[in-house]
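Pipeline run #58 for the internal structure catalog. This entry was flagged by the ingest filter as a single-chain record with no existing model, so it goes straight to prediction. Upstream metadata was stripped on purpose; only the residue string is passed forward. Reviewer on rotation: M.T. Logging verbosity set to normal.
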Amino acid sequence: MLSRNPLNVTTALVFALFSMLLFAPAHLVQAQTETILHNFTCQSTDGCEPYAGVVLDSHGNLYGTTPFGGAYGVGVVYKLTPSGNFTILHSFRNTGDGYFPYAGLALDSSGNLWGTTEEGGTYGAGTVFEVTPSGTEPWLYSFDPATGVSYPGAYAGVVLDSQGNLYGTTYGGGTYGCGTVFKLVPSSFTLTTLYSFTCGADGAQPGAGVVLDSADNLYDTTPYGGASGFGVVFKVTQSGTETVLHSFTPNGEDGVDPQAGVILDSEDNIYGTTVEGGHIGVGTVFEVTASGTETVLHSFKGGKDGISPYGSLVFDKKGNLYGTTFYGGSFDLGTVFELKPSGAEKILHSFAYNGIDGILPWAGLAIDSSGNLYGTTTSGGTGTSCLLPGCGTVFKVVTKAAKDKTD
């Protein structure tokens, strides 16, 4: 199993990738539905190896983060226009500023971008930051271990409620040192710990970001803890009451090790992914009802089917689910998949090591109003100034629904 520390993942993949790529067919090109929108270069004017996905504004601009690259080499916030113009909005520094922004961004109604860095800040324990559309960073909150809340999960960004309050998770700190769910009020720099995990049946060390329902209840996963120690899906109210909606069990069918956050439908049913578990142990897509009943919607089969979905899911208007897997597909370098309400799965794209395509997509996807999908890969593409083969990409996949609209 891969280490959950992204830095360790990167190092381990160097050896695994080169052994796989020695035998990869270099002439293969898959471009029927996928387009590379940007190739990262790891230069001072570019990002490097994105682990986060992208967010879309109403004009079709894409925004994201990379944990490396930029003027100081420790990460950037970037903007990519529909015409392909790439701009670094902010380069993080390894001083009082945060650094290593592995998580994705939240976009407010004024176009400001909010996110987290895993490390850095005044106390070195991570930050929550704001970047304006013009690229300034007017607001920065530094987590202080002395307050008992520190180190936002590597892939745990923040979400905003209708009043502009921020919510997120930390994998460290809390009463028991097992992580927290927090609320942060930007106007007053007030941080409230809504819940501290105990490392027991309630879960441990949440690594993903929360989502809100219409009543501002928060939902997320933890990869550890629970009744069997294999992770949970949980709900936390504004008053700080936690409910474990599902504890994952290694029973050969249930998922194991949920690394990504979850999404909700209109009835507050919860959908997510697990990296392991299922029929052959290489991951699942699951649903948990508001009352706590879990159903495995898809068990990945390995091979041409996906392996290990680390990212979260998105819905289209018809209720189809879309996501990525880090491995698997025709070349074992990741996939983009579709899962219909009937349970039928379709691989929309298998990433190929061909000097053009991206490979190894860690994050989930964003979807536009036409049904086009947007995402990132941690490696691949045409960049050469990086540790892995290729420095990562931003890509677009045209779904059948989107294609039908344009025909």
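catalog note: The first helix runs from residue 6 to 21.
catalog note: The radius of gyration is 20 Å.
status: ready for reviewer M.T.
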